[in-house]
Write a structure and sequence with these properties.
The complex is a heterodimer.
Chain A: H1 6-17, H2 19-43, H3 47-93, H4 95-108, H5 113-124, H6 127-137, H7 149-173, H8 177-202, H9 209-239
Helix pairs in contact in A: 2-3, 2-7, 2-8, 3-4, 3-6, 3-7, 4-5, 4-6, 7-8, 8-9
Chain B: E1 12-17, E2 20-25, E3 33-38, H1 47-56, H2 58-63, E4 66-72, H3 76-85, E5 93-95, H4 100-104, E6 108-109, E7 114-115, E8 117-122, E9 128-134, H5 142-154
Parallel strand pairs in B: 3-4, 4-5
Antiparallel strand pairs in B: 1-2, 1-5, 3-8, 6-7, 8-9
The chains are: A mainly alpha, B alpha+beta.
Chain lengths: 241, 174
């Protein structure tokens, strides 16, 4: 069986790295929309007004989250590119310093000093190999550190939209506001558990994926509950105005 | 660190020389002067530029009746492998793994647990005639060490940047 090529492995890792945007987007979309539905259901009488407000919040949230992910990844990429240029210049201008630092880094990872010396000496025969190894081992940077701003933005926005549909769809489909809200919140809990179960539990080969699902649910709902409690605590401040 | 005029502390240490492990004592070095240079570690990338620099200039030092001796806290076996790695060296490398001699010469870097980049030139009476140390990251100048040896052996006052053969070499004492 042929071993996978490094480029294929890198592509797989890059795809897996996008999981961050997907998980973040879904979680935020689910909770934000559930929060909007729960909050407005108590405050606004008309069901259609609640749905319209939730839809507006969903679209605004998806656009905002997508733009935020795009800008964040773009800024991160620019910073990493700049650091890589600096690291590359250091390899060219001060090879001895870089060689010594690389030796220290390899020795810290358990390689004997003499073995580290020979590895670095061998790498030094190919400046590009020395440069890329130094970038990774000394500076913690690599070409694979670059995200794709457009892809990250798109994934984040779509994930937010999909997440928002989870509490929104039951609310739209069920005529009763109360029953729709209960169903929406139930679906929210179920999806949060499922995201934790599959992403944290199954994809990362955890022994108890259900535990990963429960943890994800608890953290997401816990954050929402803390936010709700803080809202309750500060609500008297606005009572007089 | 010792200063010019101080008596050089005696040593008798294992060493790697000419592909073998032996012992070298300060009292057994017969040359008129000695360049005793301390360096941080074997198997590094700055040290070999100095170690090989002294190796290449060994004939010039010998012409000045000066022996070269390198010292680090590595053991003699490591020195031997290091010398082989560098293609052989024309002078001994002393092994001071417990850093006793390195400390006596005042050039032990406590934070890095290695010898500093320090150079001593010892005169015929085995007193310190010249002492210099630099940062671990900065290699020393072999040609400057040779210039100092030549200046010291000349027994004259030498102005800044004096070079052998300079017309203005001798500054007469009035």
């Amino acid at each position: 069986m042929a071993a996978p090529k490094p480029e294929e492995k890198r592509r797989v890792f890059e795809r897996l790295a996008s999981i961050r945007e997907v998980v973040f987007g879904i979680q935020d979309g689910v909770l934000t929309t559930a929060g909007v539905l729960a909050g407005l259901s108590g405050a606004v009488n008309g069901r259609s007004q609640v749905i319209l407000a939730a839809l507006a919040s969903t679209v605004a949230g998806a656009l905002s989250m997508g733009a935020g992910a795009y800008l964040g990844t773009r800024a991160e990429t620019e910073v990493i590119r700049s650091e890589l240029r600096r690291a590359h210049a250091e390899v060219s201008d001060q090879p001895y310093i870089v060689q010594e630092s690389l030796m220290e880094a390899l020795a810290k990872e358990g390689l004997a000093r003499e073995a580290s010396y020979r590895v670095v000496k061998l790498l030094s025969s190919a400046p590009q190999a020395l440069s890329s190894t130094a970038e990774e081992k000394i500076y913690g940077l690599s070409q694979g550190s670059f995200g794709n701003p457009a892809l990250d933005g798109l994934l984040m926005g779509v994930a937010f939209l999909l997440g928002a549909l989870v509490p929104l769809l039951p609310f739209v489909l069920i005529a009763s506001v109360h029953a729709g809200l209960i169903a929406g919140l139930g679906a929210t809990a179920l999806v949060l558990f499922a995201v934790g179960y599959f992403v944290e539990g199954r994809l990362s080969d955890q022994r108890y994926p259900a535990l990963a699902g429960a943890r994800f649910l608890a953290i997401a709902l816990g954050a929402a509950a803390i936010g709700y409690l803080i809202g309750l605590a500060i609500s008297p401040l606005g009572a007089g105005s | 660190m010792l200063k010019p005029g101080d008596v050089a502390p005696p040593f008798d240490l294992p060493c790697a020389f000419e592909g073998k492990i032996g012992h070298l004592a300060l009292t057994s070095v017969r040359s008129e002067m000695i360049v005793l240079f301390f360096y941080p570690r074997d198997f590094s990338f700055i040290c070999p530029t100095e170690v090989l620099g002294f190796h290449k200039a060994q004939a010039a030092f010998k012409a000045e009746h000066t022996s070269l001796v390198g010292v680090s806290v590595d053991d003699a076996e490591t020195h031997l492998r290091w010398a082989v790695e560098l293609g052989g060296l024309s002078y001994p490398l002393l092994a001071d793994p417990d850093a006793r001699v390195t400390r006596e010469y005042g050039v032990y870097d406590d934070s890095e647990k290695v010898a500093m980049r320090a150079t001593y030139v010892l005169d015929a009476k085995r007193n310190v005639a010249y002492a210099v140390a630099s940062s671990i990251n900065v290699g020393r100048s072999v040609s400057e060490t040779l210039r100092v040896v030549r200046a010291l052996r000349g027994g004259r006052l030498c102005p800044a940047d004096w070079q052998p053969g300079d017309a203005s070499a001798a500054v007469e004492l009035k």
